[in-house]
Structures are given as C-alpha cells and as structure tokens.
Amino acid sequence: MPRFFCDAIAGGKAVITGEDAAHIARSLRMQPGERLTLSDGQGTDFDCVLDLVTPQEVFLTVLESYPCRTEPSVYVRLYMAMPKAEKLELIVQKAVELGVGEIIPVLTRRCVSRPDPKSFEKKRVRLARIAAEAAKQSGRGVVPQVELPVTYKQMLADAARNDAAFFCYEAGGEPLLSRLGGAETIG
Fold first, then answer.
1. What pTM did the predictor assign?
2. Over the stretch 62-105, which tens digit does the pLDDT of each residue have?
3. Which residues, at least 6 apart from 113, have a Cβ–Cβ distance to it below 8 Å?
4. Can you tell me the distance from the alpha carbon of 29 to that of 40, in angstroms, rounded to the nearest whole number?
5. How many CB atoms lie within 10 A of CB 155?
6. DSSP letters of 124-183?
7. Helix (H, G, I), strand (E, B) or coil at 29
8. Which long-range contacts does 124-130 make (Cβ < 8 Å, 24+ apart)?
C-alpha cells in the first residue's frame, strides 16, 4: 500500500497537497475508494481511504490509526565525521533506511569539509528532503533530523549522557558483536 507523510490529519480526515497529491493523481493514478497509509512523522500511521483525488489536493478519511510497526525499538543517534563532497547525502539516505533516529555530523581535526553554519543550513534543506524520501521508501514512521555539525568535544560530552555509546573505527580492537552482550555471529 502506498505510504505518504502528512501533517494535515485531524478529526478523522486528512488532506495531501503539493508534489505528493500530484504523484497520487498522475503517477499512481489512484481513484476514490482506494486505500493508502499516511504517517504523521511522529510514529503514528493511519490507514486511509481516498475520498477525492485531484493533482492539487487529495482528501482522505482515516479508517484506523496505530503506532508505526516499522520503527526500530532502539533509538540510534549517528555521529559521523563530516565527509567530503556529496557523500553526506548518501550517508543520510542509507542511515535513514537502516533505522537511525538522528544524524549529527562531527567536525574532527582531519575533516576536509568544514562548512560554516549558514551554508550548512542551506544544505540541511536538501538533506531533510533526502531523509524524507528515504523514510517513505523504507516504510518509516518518523523522518530523522540532520542536525548542525558539532565539534568532537561536543560529541563526546553528548555521548557521555546516553545509556550506551559505541565508537567505530576501522583500526579498532573488538568486533561490535562481541560488545553487544553475547550476540551470535551473523552469517
């Protein structure tokens, strides 16, 4: 069943506008009476039936609401050193598809890319769109946020406040599975 994010859900009714409405009407060619799933972006899904479909607006009736069944039970905050060029877009896409809840770039000593906050804020708009598309593609109920870059010191302070923190490094010591409390080898 097609899935879309929508924040215009109230009183058992919903309205989809913009590009998603055009996609439903023109690409999917959905008709009144067909069903789709809406997500409020906060972890709640809504089974809906289409009432009226136009390329500008799609009106729906909510049949049922329930917690999103595809959201991970563990919240993962991904800190990663700021990559070069456009690699950040791919990292955001794949991290969202894998179930990460939040993505925070870290400015480390050896980072080549060092965007200033103003230019990164412009890039965040594109990254938010990539995160939303990846969330739709993978059936997520929440669109993870890409935060402003932090320093290495800020990242360490934040990680110290969490229940658990894992730092992965290609020349690291123990395999990750050995640190997860007796997890069996996948293979």
1. 0.81
2. 999 999 998 998 889 999 999 986 899 999 999 999 999 999 99
3. 82, 83, 84, 85, 88
4. 23
5. 22
6. HHHHHHHHHHHHHHTT-SB-PEEPPPEEHHHHHHHHHTSS------TT-SS-GGGGSSSP
7. coil
8. 124/148, 126/89, 127/88, 127/89, 127/92, 130/89, 130/92, 130/93, 130/96
